[in-house]
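Hey, can you fold this one?
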Amino acid sequence: MPNRSEICTTVESYIEHLGNHDVDKLVGLFAEGAVQHEPLGAQSYRGLDEIRAFDEKCAQVPFSVSLLSPITVTGRFAAMQVRVHRDGIPDFAATDLFEFDENCKIVSLSVVLDPEARV
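Sure. Predicted structure:
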């Protein structure tokens, strides 16, 4: 199982690649067969092909993200909040919950988006 430092490094890489819209590096953080729920309860993307297609669409939207909270880690799970900035709308928070495999690849990502959670 990956340790806290390895998990935090992967989450930091996720934030970096999400913010700079590097789809290849972003998808490279996920395990084969991973699932991404975004937004949680509304849409799920299963497997690297679906995750890549979703991330490619997102990369077309001009936005930036920055870490808003500490990265918290329990076992193979981690959570954090990001500030989402997009011109024309107020900045808001998104909360991400990750699950990792033994190789520190993301096997599950649940994203709670709340444009009314103004930051």
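The longest helix spans residues 4-19. Let me know if you want another pass with a different chain boundary.
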